[in-house]
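Dear colleague,

As promised, here are the two records you asked about, laid out in our usual form so they can be pasted straight into your sheet.

NAME FIELD: protein one
SEQUENCE, THEN STRUCTURE:
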Amino acid sequence: MIRGTRPLRVLVVAPSRYALRQPHAGGLEACVWDRVRWLRARGHEVSLCAAEGSDFLGDVAEFRLPVPEWTRPEHSSDTEYPEGYAAAVDVAYDAALDRLIADRHLYDVVDNHSLHPAPIRWSRAADIPVVTTLHTPPLEPMLEAAAEVVDSPHRFVAVSQATARAWSTEGVDAFVFPNGIDTDQWTRGEGGTSWVWSGRVVPEKAPHLAIEAARSAGAQIVLAGRIGDADYFQQEVVPRLGAHARYVGPLHQPDLCRLVGSSAVALVTPMWEEPFGLVIAEALATGTPVAAFDIGGVSEVLAGMPGSATVTPGDVVALGQAAARLAAEGAREPLTRVWTRRAAVQQHSLAQRYREVERVLTHTAQPVAAWRVPAVSR
């Protein structure tokens, strides 16, 4: 913790759709899971408001959020809710607010990662400082909530300059604090010959384009991740699987680290305004070079990184060529993996990133009259 300050009492609010546990549902859930662990390791008292079944949940019933219950597994979706779920989440957040107001004396600050507008409004309703991290492009309900708390003890932070610019265009200004990864867990691998893609299997992440890029270069590719859109998986991914492309499902972190670290190159193929791209930092930490579509915050994550290349989004031939070049360079010079990991640790480690977040939480938790903007290290 910051020298000369007492431990913070933090209520971390996670997104409600998926539980925080391995294998992680996505990068957002992985980030919040790491945040709780890191803050506790730094000596802070951390409570969690998250989906039922999450790691780290305490005994406060009102901080356990409902999870979607689908009638059939193939109907599950990252973009839609089963009937009645949205209303159930609204009720759950109302109950959480009531409990927060009743126990206001137990908390110094709310560290909010929810995509629901309610926790933003808690800064006014519960008169408690809130720091909301913007993990996505602008969402209208969150914009409406932001407009209601302009005079409240609330700060916004964004995971990339690209994300901050998108929200600023809509009237919400945010400091930029990029995500970090646990580089003690994401260790260097020895590389290999096959390529790899990891992430949520959804249209906006476009793993089918990673398969096409690998095919264009005559390479084999392994895909890992949770299926977030069953129709997309069946229609666009399954027909492309075969001898040159294999899907291994969602993996726990140690297994995913081994897969990525034993690959020649990682492909990252977002076809939306990618806010950050945690899989990029994860791959780099294993020493595996990254070839990616240049969209959203991708180029920020790759800035200054050896063993990386970006191409125009959607250009699978250019992506395949860039990936083949990186793989060949790594084969010629094995030390490339050492240099790549070293740069990733310096730029993307939790210790590097979260000390800045800790300062924001500490300063936001102070009385409004004592607020000042903390310096941001670059």
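NAME FIELD: protein two
SEQUENCE, THEN STRUCTURE:
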Amino acid sequence: MARLLADRPTDTLTIGEMARLLGHSHGAVRNAALTLVRRGEAGQSGSGQPSFRANAKTAAAAQSAVISPPGTHAPRAQTAATSRTMIPAAATPKRSGPIRRAGGQLYHPRELADLPDVEALNRLRDADVPVLLYGPPGTGKTSLVEAAFPDLLTVAGDGDTTVGDLIGEYTQADGGGYVFQYGPLVTAMTEGRALLIDDATLVSPKVLAALYPAMDGRRQIQVKAHKGETIKAEPGFYVVAGHNPGVHGAVLTEALSSRFSVQIQVGTDYDLALALRVDARVVRVARHLARQVELGELGWAPQLRELLSYQKTEAVLGTKAALANLVGIAPVEDRDAVADAVVKAAGVQQVAPLTLGKQLPATAARQPPGTGSAHRGRSR
């Protein structure tokens, strides 16, 4: 990447242009370009569709390859190389160590189709097979996608999501006029990036329909709001979606389901919770409640997100308060069952939701030495 920019010192190149010149995926090129910018070895202009050019340090950076520490390079680069050399799945080394996500958090890969989940998702991306991840909130669906695709863009879906939130809309410029600001779908298409539609089943089907032409054989969309412009998807563009079946209003329509050839159920890995040193008694409670949910006897059970939150709360406020909070975050209709499970597993007499108590009595202000009535009595 540095050598390409150094050889064209007067040129400003987009990610798409560099990908075509180098013959690599857009995601890999983007990661390399941003790494050079972070190291101060290349310049960047623009943000929505950035472009890059050489600076005073680029030529020196081109003299030797920089190998990222384990766990920091993009899984997509590994997968693409594997595809080109046609290595059988059984012979491919499995990456099972923690992966650092863009926000700095660690993700611990899980097994999927005899592969680490991040590797399986990258293979599906290379084959352009869209994936729908479904399961209760807090099981790690978003974390998995972020770990698998460092070039990810995300749309947080809900009932208020509009077509403009996906494709773009006009916004007022500093000079007073209006300019068209492209949305994440257009950016992902033009830069060959991965796009996550989180909580996709909360989005109106009419809004999601704007996404479908980009996912099928056409791989293009028409931006009617911007002069009817046609946007074509660059290689590497990929869509993955998340679905929380138990959330009110989440409807998996046939039109949406049919667009995702692979649908993967994501549940909480309770063994991972134990490995992360969450209180074993609380993990036991979560397992018990999860079994009740499976049997249809209960509607809620703590997932990995709640277990990790319990761990942090316990470290700050203590076990009693953390147990009370675990009961308090359960839906009202399930709180009694959660409280009973906590009482049995934790060996406490009773537990109720974390609640503010009565007002604390005021404490008298401490007087500095040498003051007070006794001292005033001795003064003349």
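A couple of things worth noting about protein two: Confidence is low (pLDDT under 50) at residues 66-93. The radius of gyration is 27 Å.

Best,
R.
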